[in-house]
Amino acid sequence: MSEQDYSQSEMEKALNSVQEIKVGDVVKGEVLAIDDNQLVVGVQGAGVEGVVPLKELTADRNAKIEDQAKVGDVIELVVLSSLGHDKENGNYLLSRRRLEARKVWSDIEAKFKAGETLSVKVTEVVKGGLVVDAGVRGFIPASMVDDHYVDDLKSYVGQTMEVKIIEIEPSENRLILSRRELVKAEKEAKKAEIFAKLLPGDVIEGKVARLPNFGAFVDLGGIDGLVHISEIAHEHVNKPSDVLKVGQEVKVKVLNVDPEKDRISLSIKALQPGPWDTIAEVAPVGATIEGTVKRLTTFGAFVEVAPGVEGLVHISQISHQHIATPNEVLKEGEVVKVKVLSEDPENKRLSLSIKALTEKPGEDSKDEEAVPSDYEMPETSNGFSLGEMIGDALKKDNDDSDK
Predict the structure, then answer these.
(1) Biggest distance spanned by C-alpha atoms of the chain
(2) CB 75 within 8 A of CB 40
(3) pLDDT tens digit string along 115-135?
(4) How far is Cα 33 from Cα 221, in angstroms, rounded to an integer?
(5) Is the Cβ–Cβ distance between 314 and 355 less than 8 Å?
(6) What is the per-residue pLDDT across 238-269, written as a single tens digit (0 to 9) for each?
(7) Is residue 84's pLDDT more than 80?
(8) Banded model confidence at residue 93, pLDDT cuts 50, 70, 90
(9) What is the DSSP letter of 40?
(10) How remote is the C-alpha of 13 from its chain's centroid?
(11) Which of 22, 69, 184, 318 is the most buried (most CB within 10 A)?
(12) Spatial CA neighbour of 178 closest among 143, 230, 134
C-alpha cells in the first residue's frame, strides 16, 4: 500500500469514527470555556462544539454559571437544535436541564404506574392552587391541597409534602398532583388509633383547632374532639373566642367516646377547681357580701356572688314591704349587698337575703290598730302557726276578764 493510499485509509477511518449528531441525542461534552453566561463544550466523538446557556443548565433563576461547571468538566447533555456551522458560537444548542427533566419524567411515570407517591416542595402560590418542585414543575389544585377548604394557601410555601400523581403528560410538561387523599388516609389511620385507646376519664392535651359559637374543636393529634360551650369554664361563657384562641394548647378530660358517630366529648372545666368547692370561704353563712343580679324570676332574684356561683334571694327576702314581682325593686346587672342565710355546696344551693341588711320600717307596732288591714303577717320561725298565736292571745284576755 502506498503512502497516499495509507493516508486516505486513515482519513476514512477517522471520518467514520465521527459520531453523527441529531436533535434529541444524548451526548457528552467537555467544557472548553465559560463565556457570556454560557458554556462552550466539545462534543466527544463528534468533533464539533456546542453551547449550553445558563437557563439550560439549571431551572434556578438565581444560579451563577460559575457554580454549575468549570473548564475540563465532562457533562451529559441533550441536543436541542443545530446552529449551523458557526464555529465561533458552536454548532449545536445543548441542554443539561432538559436531560435531567427527561430522566425525572421517566422516574415519575414509573412511580405513577406503580401507584407510588412523590415528595415535592411547594415553591409558589398561583391562581387556583400550588406550584411544586418535583424535579419538574408540578401543580396541586386548591381543592386537592387538603381534605377541607383552605382560604389562604400561602402557609404551604416552602413545605415539603407527599402527594399522589393524578395526571401526567411529559410531552406537555403536565403534572397534576393531589395531597387530599393522602391527608384523608392519614387522618383515618390516626383516628382509628385514637378511638382504640381513648377512654372516658382520660386526661389528654390538644390544640384548639376551631371556635364555632357552640364550643371548641380540639385537635387530639389526628381527630377533633368537641368541648361544648358549657364545658369550657365554670362561669358563664358568651362566646368560646372570649376565653380561647385557635392554636392554643389545652388540657382536656374525655367525657364520652362514640366511634360509630365519630364523636369525642371533652371538658376543660372538669379539670379546673369548681367555684362551689371554696364557697364556705367565699360566702360563709352570716357574712355580708356583694353580688350582681343575674336573673329575675317570679319567685325571686338570682345573684352571682362569685364566678360560677349564684344564690337565690327569695321574693320574701328582697324587701320588708310586700312586692308582687322582684323587678319592682331590682334590675338585672345591679350590684347589691346580700347576707348569706344558708349554703349547700353539694346541691349547689345558696340562700341569700337583701332585707336582712335593712331596717324593718315601723318597728314600734305593738298597737294592733296601727297594723294596716292589707299587711301580710310574716311566718315565724318558732314552730307556732299564726292561728295558734291568735288563739293564745284571746284565751289570755278571757282569763283576765274572769278575774
Answers:
(1) 181
(2) no
(3) 999 999 999 999 999 999 998
(4) 57
(5) no
(6) 999 999 999 999 999 999 999 888 899 999 99
(7) no
(8) very high
(9) E
(10) 73
(11) 318
(12) 143
Q: How far, CA to CA in Å, does 148 sit from each of 200, 245, 383?
A: 29, 20, 69
For cell 454548532, the residue is: 91
**Within 10 Å of residue 380's Cβ, how many Cβ atoms?**
10
Q: Could you report the per-residue pLDDT of 359-399, keeping only the tens digit for each?
A: 887 655 444 333 333 333 334 333 333 444 344 444 444 45
Question: Could you tell me the three cell numbers for 265?
Answer: 366529648
SS3 content of the chain, % helix, strand, coil (to 5): 30, 35, 35
Rounded alpha-carbon distances, angstroms, from residue 315 to 155, 186, 318, 331, 360: 59, 60, 5, 13, 16
Enter the C-alpha cell of residue 138: 408540578
**CA–CA distances in Å: residue 196 to residues 199, 259, 287:** 9, 9, 52
Whether the predicted model's global pTM rises above the 0.70 cut? no
Distance CA 144, CA 117 (A): 14
Mean pLDDT of the chain: 84
Phi, psi values for residue 326, rounded to 5°: -60, -30
pLDDT at 222: 76
Find out whether 318 and 296 touch, Cβ atoms under 8 Å: no
Q: How far apart are CA 16 and CA 259, in angstroms?
A: 76
CB atoms within 10 A of CB 79: 22
Nearest residue to 164 (alpha-carbon basis) of 190, 186, 144: 144
How far is 346 from 310, CA to CA, in rounded Å? 14
Helix or strand (DSSP H, E) at 158: none
Instruction: Find out whether 105 and 170 touch, Cβ atoms under 8 Å.
Output: yes
With beta carbons less than 8 A apart as the criterion, state whether 255 and 202 touch: no
Residue with cell 407527599: 162
Report the run of H or E that residue 136 belongs to, with start and end. Answer: none
List all residues 6 or more positions away from 141 whose beta carbon is below 8 Å from its beta carbon: 128, 129, 176, 178
